[in-house]
Design a protein that fits this description.
Ubiquitin-like (UB roll); elongated; alpha+beta; single chain
């Protein structure tokens, strides 16, 4: 009997380029395994899966999460600024409402 396989995508976005690879992997493949098989780490050697967060369709997940048919694995870049601090700066620069 042939081993079941699933179709997934691995993606990574930069301001000036992106990486999107469709893969057919064995059922039971994890996020970490799919990222390794995709060639992403060879294309972008600066990615460190111990630092960069990963997720499926915008929801953070651990590397050992088992994938399902048509999942899109996303590798996230580190934040450049704390979102809360950026919001405080923007709010502080606006004049107070009367």
């Amino acid at each position: 009997m042939a081993e079941a396989s699933i179709h997934v995508q691995v993606c990574y976005a930069l301001p000036d380029s992106n990486f999107l690879r469709a893969l057919t992997v064995p059922a039971g493949t994890t996020i970490g395994q799919a990222v390794m098989q995709s060639g992403l780490l060879q294309a972008f050697p600066g990615i460190d899966l111990a630092i960069n967060m990963v997720g499926i369709y915008g929801k953070r997940k651990p590397l050992d999460t088992v994938l399902h048919e048509h999942d899109r694995v996303e590798v996230y870049r580190p934040l450049q600024a704390d979102p809360k601090e950026a919001r405080r700066r923007r709010a502080g620069s606006k004049p107070a409402k009367a």
